[in-house]
Design a protein that fits this description.
- By secondary structure, the protein is an alpha/beta fold.
- It has nine helices and eight strands.
- The strands form three sheets. The protein has a four-stranded parallel beta sheet, sandwiched between helices.
- The protein starts with 12 loop residues before the first strand and ends with a strand.
- The relative contact order is 0.11.
Length: 263
């Protein structure tokens, strides 16, 4: 009797989704990526795509998450079984938000799993744990928002500036007004010139790091931070001045917005 030919087993495929709530949490994305890759190695799963939402709240819906929308498209295109996140709160912070987004993932043909292996099963007890985790994350987000609001109110009462500082500017010594950050402006000019030369966002970040420049966080040049730098509203004069210098040459000046390694 001839041997029966075994059918090949379809590989387990996953799409990774990373999220940070602010553009300055660049190190968080690197850590998340390491965690999902470790999970994939343990589980014998092949990660076929990685999508990122940088500077997106955990309470945001799908319409505010371009990275998640791309991840869902990859899930469908690759027939992926899983959408893997570092932890459940990286997927969403809030019961209603988590439930709504999880349904989107299921409709795409996959299920959400966490790289820390917490509450990944479909049993009623694991589903309950995910609900508790989402509720806890929602509570923590509300507490942080309350504390932030109180702190900003104190600053406002003292006449100090509240809110984010646009790229290309820094806070003046009076704590209220903004002044030009010449170093940040010059870095932005270099970034734009690299972009005009055809470099990708990641390659621009690598080039800026090689020049000794670091973003405001002092950590890594994540592509989304580079994108923000390219979109900075620079004065025409700054761009014109920068165009006269060779790429790679930088002008010495000080800035609180970015840091630079010592020569």
């Amino acid at each position: 009797m001839p041997d029966r030919k075994e059918e090949p087993v379809a590989p387990k495929v996953a799409v990774a989704y990373l999220r940070t709530s602010t553009a300055r949490q660049d190190l968080g994305l690197a850590v998340q990526r390491v965690e999902v890759e470790r999970w994939a190695s343990r589980a014998g799963v092949n990660i076929v795509a990685v999508h990122v939402d940088c500077g997106v709240s955990g309470a945001a819906g799908l319409d505010a998450r371009a990275g998640l929308a791309e991840a869902l498209a990859s899930v469908r295109a690759q027939s992926a079984r899983y959408l893997v996140v570092a932890t459940h709160d990286r997927f969403a912070r809030g019961v209603a938000t988590y439930s709504a987004l999880e349904k989107c993932v299921r409709r795409a043909g996959a299920r959400v799993v966490s790289a820390d292996d917490v509450a990944n099963d479909e049993s009623p007890s694991e589903q309950f744990i995910r609900t508790v985790l989402s509720a806890t994350a929602e509570y923590e987000r509300a507490v942080i928002a309350q504390r932030t609001k109180a702190a900003l109110a104190v600053r406002k009462a003292r006449g100090l500036r509240v809110g984010s500082i646009p790229l290309g500017y820094q806070l003046a010594p009076d704590g209220r007004s903004l002044v030009r950050s010449e170093r940040e402006l010059s870095i932005a000019v270099e970034a734009r010139r690299f972009r005009e030369g055809g470099l990708s966002l990641r390659a621009i970040g690598d080039a800026l790091s090689a020049m000794g420049h670091a973003p405001r966080s002092g950590r890594l040049w994540h592509p989304e931070i580079v994108r923000s730098l390219l979109r900075a509203g620079l004065p025409d004069s700054a761009i014109a001045d920068g165009a006269q210098r060779p790429v790679g040459e930088h002008t010495p000046s000080s800035s609180h917005g970015m840091t630079s390694a010592s020569p």
